[in-house]
Amino acid sequence: MKIYLKTPEEIRKMREVNLIVAAILDAVEAAAMAGVSTWELNEVATREIQRHGVTSAFLGYRGYPAVLCTSINEVVVHGIPRKDVVLKEGDILGLDFGCYKDGFCGDSARTLPIGRISGEAQKLIDVTRQALENAIGKCVPGSRLQDISWAIQELVEKNLFSVVRSFVGHGIGRSMHEDPAVPNFGLPGRGLRLKAGLVLAIEPMVNAGTHEVDVLADNWTAVTRDRKLSAHFEHSVAITEDGPFVLSRP
Ligand code: CO
Fold first, then answer.
1. What are the structural domains, with CATH classification, of the chain?
2. pLDDT of residue 135
3. How many angstroms does the Cα of residue 235 sit away from the middle of ligand 1?
4. How far is the CA of 108 from the centre of ligand 1 (A)?
5. pLDDT for residue 217
């Protein structure tokens, strides 16, 4: 395991790229409404990439064919944008975007409602977002890695939802995926001791029903085995002496 601690100057660069990630997600979110295809959202992201002069972290990554992941309802993560997948009222839409600038990667995701959604869907979104916030609160020097994991698992299970186990968060820096892996389940007081300069992409994936997921025949789209709803939020977070610095939050 090779962990790259970042200098303050490197964290400044990671802040810069992550602010662009946030701005591009905002632009895609503004375009996301009933009647719009996920392919059109990918085109919005592509246009924004060009405007900001950054490089997609997703396009071509292990053969991934788009710059954005668009994961609707029972899709957990890695939904591929398609012309024939059109948003409709009542959907929940996960947007995941990452890019490189000046040699550093930013990565963030959010789940949003399309028009009016069910109370259960709204609760799933709220719990997943809050699980990420609780995890961010653990991003201080001296915490253990699984304090982050447990913060997520505890809130999710208290609300009778389930944590996805087959995908995890990750270190991030000059590569999108660095050590350590950041599971969304674990035991408090276990794992790596967090140090200033560590940057983590923390990304709870939370299912309304079973935690089990299947990957469809396209080898990307991850869906809940019971086809119940799933939500996903992600921030790139730097651990600093002054506490958590959420790089992908404006
Ligand atoms: Co990520």
1. 8-246 (3.90.230.10)
2. 99
3. 8
4. 7
5. 98
